[in-house]
Amino acid sequence: DADVTQTPRNRITKTGKRIMLECSQTKGHDRMYWYRQDPGLGLRLIYYSFDVKDINKGEISDGYSVSRQAQAKFSLSLESAIPNQTALYFCATSDPIGTSTGELFFGEGSRLTVL
Amino acid sequence: QKEVEQDPGPLSVPEGAIVSLNCTYSNSAFQYFMWYRQYSRKGPELLMYTYSSGNKEDGRFTAQVDKSSKYISLFIRDSQPSDSATYLCAMNLGSSYKLIFGSGTRLLVRP
Questions:
Q1: How confident is the prediction along chain B (111 residues), in pLDDT tens digits per residue?
Q2: Which of A77, B55, B83, B99 has its CA 20 to 30 A from that of B36?
Q3: Smallest Cβ distance to B49: which of A31, A39, A101?
Q4: How far is A30 from A96, CA to CA, in rounded Å?
Q5: Chain A residues with CB-CB distance to B under 8 A?
Q6: How does residue A96 score in pLDDT terms, banded at 50, 70 and 90?
């Protein structure tokens, strides 16, 4: 089984719908992240959490919210999806040293299409 | 101007070739420099990271950082078809959560 599991892997939805992407990990890491990947733009940070009670906005948090349900679970929500949120979404984890050295462990991604 | 620039490719080479992948950056305060490999329909995985300037070797892979030129490189020796993937550079300020990624270079190694 993968260390970082994302569900669903693929989702097609309509404008205005609420969507939740879920992430669970068995790495035992406290730090979890949500990234978005778009062609030509690389990976951009949406939200990050350094422990269950710590949630922080990344560079592109508008239109998104997150919930850290447990050390191992971090979900991303789109309250009212819009077409420009069509992208590949990645969950990632790290330990404190990995935050400095850039060693993130990524899930396999959730491809979201908003029509 | 993006903080990190990376040629998107695709870069197509024959098996056995030496591959050079590069990124340039604008922020001289970056301290850690990473290379991630991403296969199609998979998440990125860290290949190697380098702290500050210099070279680091791991098997067929060598990462090089030239802070004076704000330029980093990844060399792949004896390239294999299994090296076909997108390679993402990334960097950060050290004790910071914020990784800045390049947009990735797609590499195709032809058998």
A1: 789 999 988 999 999 999 999 999 999 999 999 999 999 999 999 999 998 888 999 999 999 999 999 999 999 999 999 999 999 999 988 766 788 999 999 999 999
A2: A77
A3: A101
A4: 8
A5: 4, 31, 33, 39-45, 48, 50, 56, 58-59, 90, 92, 99-104, 106-109
A6: confident
- For residue B32, the chain A residues in CB contact (below 8 A) are 100-102
**Whether A42 contacts B4, CB under 8 Å:** yes
Q: Which helix (H) or strand (E) holds A74?
A: strand A73-78
What's the angle, vertex CA A103, arms to CA B31 and CA B21, rounded to 5? 65
Pure H helices in B29-109: none
In 3D, which of A62, A18, A20, A70 has the Cα closest to residue A44?
Answer: A62
According to the model, what pLDDT value does residue A1 have? 64
| CB nearest to A42's CB, from B46, B92, B104 | B104
Residues of B in contact with A59 (CB under 8 A): 98
Given this model, what pLDDT does residue A77 score? 98
Structure tokens at A8: 């669903």
Q: B88 by DSSP, 3-state: which? A: strand
Q: Do A44 and B94 touch (CB under 8 A)?
A: no
